[in-house]
Write a structure and sequence with these properties.
The protein is α/β, with parallel strands linked by helices. It has 24 helices and 21 strands. The strands form five sheets. A six-stranded parallel β-sheet has the order 5-4-1-6-7-8, sandwiched between helices. It has a six-stranded mixed β-sheet with strand order 11-12-13-14-17-18, sandwiched between helices. A five-stranded parallel β-sheet has the order 10-9-19-20-21, sandwiched between helices. α11 (232-246) packs across α24.
Amino acid sequence: MRRYDFVLWDWNGTLLDDLELNLSVENELLRRRGLFERADRDYYLAHFAFPIIDFYISLGFDFSKEDYAAVACEYADLYASKLHEAALFSDAVPVLDALAKDGAKQVVISATEHDLLQKQVASYGLSDRFNDVLGSENNLGKSKVAVARDWLANRKVDPRRTLFVGDTTHDFETAQAIGCDCILVSRGHNSRARLETTGCPVCDDLRGVLRAVRGGKTVLIAPDSFKGTLSATTVAHTVAAVLRERAPALTAVCLPIADGGEGTVDAYLEIFGGEKQYMTAKSPLGHPVEAAWALLPDGTAVVETAAASGIAIEQQNDALRASSYGTGELVRAALDSGCKTILLGLGGSAMTDGGTGFLAALGARFLDENGTELPPGGGSLIKLKTIDLSRFDPRVKHCTLRVLCDVENPLCGPRGAAYIYAPQKGASPEDVQLLDKGLQTLAAAAAAVVGKDEAVFPGAGAAGGLGFALKAFCGATLVSGIDCLLDAAHFEEKAKTADLIITGEGKMDAQSLMGKAPFGVAKRAGSTPVIAVVGLLDANKEDVAAAGIAAVYETNDRHLPFDEIKESAKADLIRAAKRIEI
């Protein structure tokens, strides 16, 4: 429940990071008068106070020889000329927006002259975020108390439902004078030591303000799916429910994520809204399977390889025959729907066919020496002689195709699609050799058609070589799957308003450390601590911690076989969530 209806924000040093600007301006004023430049950072933080005239006297100004009002105007003019050097604190806008979303009304108050303050607030694009902008009647920097009292009386605001946020002892004095609560932030114009003498709560950044208004911490829950057991959405909302039960004042923000594999469609629908489009496509081994892709409100299509060509679809995969044809059918359906932008996730695939099935679904033909079409799958590619693109769907080249991919393997060789990933898809050592030779044959035939070798670029080996086909024949752009989604979700802004981030996945292993979703989250979390809930931890804890994840909670802490945990997966997740330290 929200504890405050109004938040009164100090401007300078609380929302606007202008400490260095103040030091620069004050030292320039001292230089103009031939005075010693005493306004270094430590002195300023220890001595800056209201009324500002007293602070100026401590710096060496002699107001028996010049008028303080003239100095104040000189300061204001010089400050205004250099204002472009100051920026908002990075968490200012995210926290303002989070509080607005919670329904809190917000007001900015400053000792700066009223009209000048309005111009400053507008110059940073914040005018529409405040219900009122309250400045002083002049630039003399006397006090904010009178301004705050007048506002409180005119608006008939209950001070008990009002929070004052500032960065100086004077802000605390103002809050006391009007009878409201106060929080001080220790990165502005007074040192933490000075702020703590007030007895007021002191925080390092604006997340403390959110905690005060909301009555508890904010936790951002951003897990990937637990493959084969729980969707990312189920994981996020289950953890959120447990945490809310344990700490009713806690705010849990759910952000299911995916890096291009299973759950990518659902993750984008959760962020943007839109509709899931269902259709029948071919499975990796050619059986009919129901698959879905997402149509977002702006007309973008989101397709995941796992939907029609995923390793989990077949009860027993055939590494030599598995095809990407069904994924091509999904893309064709998106084109039929008029989509001009397609996001295609490459995780969780069953095939090692170099993307030939995908291309075949869009009209390409792969022929042997007799002109006969090759059967589906990578096992037949060694017989490839000719690639016929005469019937290839021209719409592919006229759309924006962004491929969500978080691996950098080439198409062929020891680090290629066959040697690295085919064993996970059921390939024997002999199959791996055959598949790799087939991919080499495909690469040579493709180079003859498209005029360049795309087999070695990072990501060519993704999804059994589908990355290669998309780059070579479709002009696709490969991007980091997790970064693309986090960009779309404005993840950094959400991270700045959170006290804790919880990520996770089904199995966290050495491959996860190469850039899978949880570590993509950790990399972009900023100063917010990150922990993970996982089905199984199969990686060195020190390596995990070094990559930014401070603690890991296992759901399968009994280390039971996968078949035995499927039924209890949600209950095990609940048990793990109850152990999380919040």
